[in-house]
Amino acid sequence: MSPFIPHLILRDIFLYLSSEDSSIALSALHSCMLVNHHWCSNAVPIYWSKPFRHTSASLINTFLHSLSSSERDAITRVHDISLPTTKPYHNYPLYLRDFDYWAFMKSIKAYIAKATMTTTKGNESNTLNGARGRRRETHKSDYENLRHVMSTEIMKMFIRVGVKLYHLRVLTWEDQLDSNEYLLLLQPELHSLLTPVRELEIAACYQKSVFLSSLAKICRNILSMHLTLANWGSPEDNGKAEMLGLSELIKAQNSLTRIQFWTFRHYGANIGYVLEAIQTQAEFLTDIHFHDVNFTATKPLNNIAACYNLERLTLKGCDLNGSAVSPLLYARFPRLGRVEG
After folding, report:
1. Domain span at residue 271?
2. pTM for this structure?
3. Which of 8, 35, 63, 272 has the fewest CB atoms within 10 Å around its CB?
């Protein structure tokens, strides 16, 4: 029998393992849940606070156990798919704090592919070549509807059990989600899942103007934003709509304290809309980070100079000229302790 270790010490150890985000650390944390009941009760809430650190069909299978009968029926009405019905030992969804939406949607696709693999192969083997293509098209549409309904019902279940999200990631840089998939997150019945969010990460190389402006109406308590927007998808307007959407999101926050911009190189003068929005958060912002941002077409950075509570300012790999940076040279930042360039 393992020696007894107090709850607070175990918690610190498990939090450290969770913060590593490496496969070895996560495997160690998972093993800790198997030691005894005391270790398990301390490790489970930490492990399941951010389960979507990788794509996994088994994660979706675990969450499906927590569906209500009406949520399960909504899924099976779309497609006759076998769903788990037994109640889980722990209320795993309740612990969710960090939600990676890309990994969530990819995990759902993996689960559906695994669950329907045998049926799909059987259907295709009994069709002629001409009918096979039509059947595949039908399946593609059916499975898309199934993904949408399954993701919606699981997120509704998160709300029902009382999930309080802290960190939301919408990362679609390498493997794009289509517009319908990420806009699912903005359905009216899911708004209460997003309103508690305090940390937001978005990375995309295509337009998200509708997503950003819609998110501004839902999330108003964000403290930290990490934004990577490359504007490769709309050269015709130089990303004006996207910058206006981001401007709305920044202005909507009650007390934004930290914001990071990465690869904002191709927005030209439209970055000015975001700079104006930043000034509305001047009282609260303590950390502003610009990386690979082109300021040569913007007005002088008076908006940044107005953020008098800054403790850290970073301008890395940015295109600047003397007129743009001059307001920063004469601004008063009594709390500024670190400047990086």
Report:
1. 198-341
2. 0.85
3. 8
